[in-house]
Write a structure and sequence with these properties.
The protein is globular, with a radius of gyration of 16 Å. It has one domain. β2 and β3 form a beta hairpin. The chain is an alpha+beta fold and about 110 residues long. A four-stranded antiparallel beta sheet has the order 1-2-3-4. The chain has a two-stranded antiparallel ribbon with strand order 5-6. The chain has three helices and six strands; from the N terminus they run ββββααββα. InterPro entries: DUF6686.
Length: about 110
C-alpha cells in the first residue's frame, strides 16, 4: 500500500511521492504523470532549461494562446503551456532538488506585526 507524501502544491497542481514504490505522481491542470526518481529529476531539469522568451518569439503569430511546447514520446501529443503555467510547473517540481535555498514565497508563515 502506498503512503503518499505531499511534496509541493500549487493552485493548479500537486506533487506526491510514494516511498513504497519510490515513484512520484505529478498532477498539473488536467494532466497526471507517474515518474520514477530518475524520470522526475530529468523532467525537472528539462522544465528548468526551457527558454520562455525564445518560444514566445518563435510562436509570436500563432493562433494558440499557449506558446511553450513540451514534447512527449507520443508523436501526436505535445503539451502547450503559457508563461504563467510553466513558471508554476517549475515551482511545483523544484522541490525534487534536495540542496536548494527556499524562496520567500515558499515559506508558509503568517506574520503578525505588533
Amino acid at each position: 500500500m502506498c503512503n503518499l507524501k505531499v511534496l509541493n502544491r500549487t493552485s493548479n497542481g500537486i506533487l506526491l511521492f510514494c516511498q513504497h514504490r519510490e515513484m512520484y505522481q505529478l498532477l498539473f491542470n488536467n494532466l497526471t504523470f507517474d515518474l520514477s526518481g530518475i524520470e522526475m529529476t530529468s523532467f525537472a531539469n528539462y522544465i528548468d532549461q526551457i527558454d520562455i522568451d525564445y518560444w514566445e518569439r518563435e510562436y509570436k503569430y500563432s493562433i494558440y494562446e499557449k506558446k511553450i511546447p513540451i514534447p512527449t514520446l507520443q508523436s501526436n501529443f505535445i503539451i502547450l503551456l503559457n508563461r504563467k503555467e510553466l513558471e508554476e510547473l517549475r515551482f511545483l517540481v523544484d522541490c525534487v532538488s534536495e540542496d536548494r535555498i527556499l524562496k520567500p514565497m515558499e515559506i508558509n508563515y503568517k506574520i503578525i506585526s505588533n
